[in-house]
Specification:
This protein has 14 helices and 20 strands. The protein is an alpha/beta fold and 466 residues long. It has a domain of 321 residues: Metal-dependent hydrolases (TIM Barrel, Alpha-Beta Barrel). Strands 1, 2, 3, 4, 5, 6, 17, 18, 19 and 20 form a 10-stranded mixed beta sheet that branches. An 8-stranded parallel beta sheet has the order 7-10-11-12-13-14-15-16. α9 packs parallel to α12. The radius of gyration is 21 Å and the shape is globular. The structure holds N-(aminocarbonyl)-beta-alanine and zinc ion (ZN) (2 copies). The site of N-(aminocarbonyl)-beta-alanine has 9 residues, from loops.
Length: 466
């Protein structure tokens, strides 16, 4: 059995910061021991990694990605191969992607299709949520089997009428089913019916530029849908996880629900923390690079998001990685913002951007690990196998250099997309080494992993409940 020792670093988990060496045996963490102790000195190893002056952190868990997702008349640019490789470059060692049910088809058919896309392609481990596009008697029944097999969370959409949209009755039924089978309902909370009216009116008035995407997807319509989703979950007696929260009023709805003791959880994404409507309003068609839903908000909303992350009103930062190239994909919406494929690249940038948030004083080091590693692992039934460094956990470990500076750019990133949403942004901190189940994937600035190393991980139930 191969043995690796990571020595000299500061081990940072969601709960502790300890100067310790880490022993890895057969792909799992075997032991931690304080630097310089007889125990650590006695460890023999095939490989020794010097982490002096570095952080030793759990690999990131990105619980919201869309590799090669068909959407908006095209397909997200990263495949499972390119997207998971890019994730590894950025210190993420597990993704939870969304399998999609096609209207008129079963959940199983959708899930099988996503297994085919991912199997043998991934550089890091992966799991699946299921998007429910067609809530009916038979798909409701299928939910029970999926939960038992390790697909324990289901995304519903209050947006995108005619595509993924579910009405309140369908949502209530899915929530009732989840309350019985232990599944977690994830909600895209925007009032899509009202938004479509505003889209039609904007286009009729000649307001066709990307910035109008932000105007029509109003804060009130995110807050209203968030409120409605919470009340429906309350009636169904089911937990609720609101995805990609961007508006301060939506955070307030989640906070109020949690204050009442309801099992309501919230996720935000780096784009809402670091970008704003100023980006959507960039000249020419540049704003299309920043079209996603929920939309970017005026900068003033960011404080509520940071506060929510500090106060545990929001528990997770995922990327909602759904990249479309500026040339050939985003430009499908020239002259009509509603045709711009929705989504941003980011799977490679999340751990670094959140470390920058530590440097900037928005969050503590341990909160960084909580919202990027341990929190998503617990939320989606992967903890403590993923999301921490403790005996028995998978040795998904990142040696992170907190002092090196880098500049984010499409010139240097590894996502298969022709722009960076964070072009030119300076970051203090950089991933140095990444291990996935003890196997090196990134080593001193080079990719040393291989396609197909990543394994499918069936998940348990949400670990914040019961
Ligand atoms: O704009 C986004 N968020 N694209 C991906 C699909 C979704 O709604 O998460
Ligand atoms: Zn969504
Ligand atoms: Zn998404």
């Amino acid at each position: 059995m191969s043995r690796t020792v990571i020595h000299g670093g500061l081990v940072v988990t969601a709960s502790d910061e300890i100067h310790a060496d880490v022993l890895i045996e057969g792909g799992r963490v075997a032991a931690l021991a304080a630097h310089g102790t007889d125990v650590a000195a006695g460890w023999s190893a095939d490989r020794r990694i010097d982490a002096t002056g570095k952080y030793v952190i759990p690999g990131g868990v990105d619980a919201h990605t869309h590799m090669e997702m068909p959407f908006g008349g095209t397909r997200a640019a990263d495949t499972f191969e390119t997207g998971t490789r890019a994730a590894a470059w950025g210190g993420t060692t597990t993704i939870v992607d969304f399998a999609i049910q096609t209207v008129g088809r079963s959940l199983q058919e959708g899930l099988d299709a996503w297994h085919v896309k991912a199997d043998g392609k991934c550089a890091i481990d992966y799991a699946f949520h299921m998007i429910l596009s067609d809530v009916n008697k038979s798909s409701l029944k299928e939910m029970d089997r999926l939960v038992a097999e390790g697909v324990t969370s289901f995304k519903l959409f209050m947006a995108y009428p005619g595509v993924f949209y579910s009405d309140d009755g369908q949502i209530l039924r899915a929530m009732q089913r989840a309350s019985g089978n232990g599944g977690l309902i994830m909600m895209h909370a925007e009032n899509g019916i009202a938004i479509d009216v505003l889209v039609e009116q904007a286009l009729a008035e000649g307001r066709t530029d990307p910035r109008h995407h932000g105007d029509v997807r109003k804060v009130a319509l995110e807050a209203e849908a968030t409120h409605r989703a919470i009340q429906l979950a309350r009636v169904a007696g089911s937990p609720l996880y609101v995805v990609h929260v961007s508006a301060d009023e939506a955070v307030a709805e989640i906070a109020a629900a949690r204050h009442r003791g309801l099992p309501v959880f919230g996720e935000t994404c780096p784009q809402y923390l670091f970008l704003s409507t100023d980006n959507l309003a960039e000249p020419g068609f540049e704003g299309a690079k920043y079209v996603c839903s929920t939309p970017l908000r005026p900068r003033e909303h960011q404080e509520a998001l940071w506060r929510g992350l500090r106060n545990n009103e929001l528990q997770v930062v995922s990327t909602d990685h759904c990249p479309f190239c500026f040339t050939g994909q985003k430009d499908l919406g020239r002259g009509d913002f509603s045709k711009i494929p929705n989504g941003l690249p980011g799977v490679e940038n999340r751990m670094d951007l959140l470390h920058q948030a530590v440097v900037d004083g928005h969050i503590s080091r341990r909160r960084w690990i909580e919202i990027a590693c341990a929190g998503p692992a617990r939320m989606f039934g992967l903890y403590p196998r993923k999301g921490t460094i403790a005996p028995g956990a998978d040795a998904d470990i990142v040696v992170y250099d907190p002092g090196t500076e880098q500049v984010l750019s499409a010139e240097t990133h590894h996502m298969d997309v022709d722009y960076s949403a964070y072009e030119g942004k300076r970051i203090t901190g950089r991933v140095e080494t990444v291990l996935s189940r003890g196997v090196p994937v990134i080593e001193k600035g080079a990719y040393v992993g291989h396609t197909g190393h990543g394994a499918y991980v069936p998940r348990g139930l949400c670990q914040y409940l019961g």
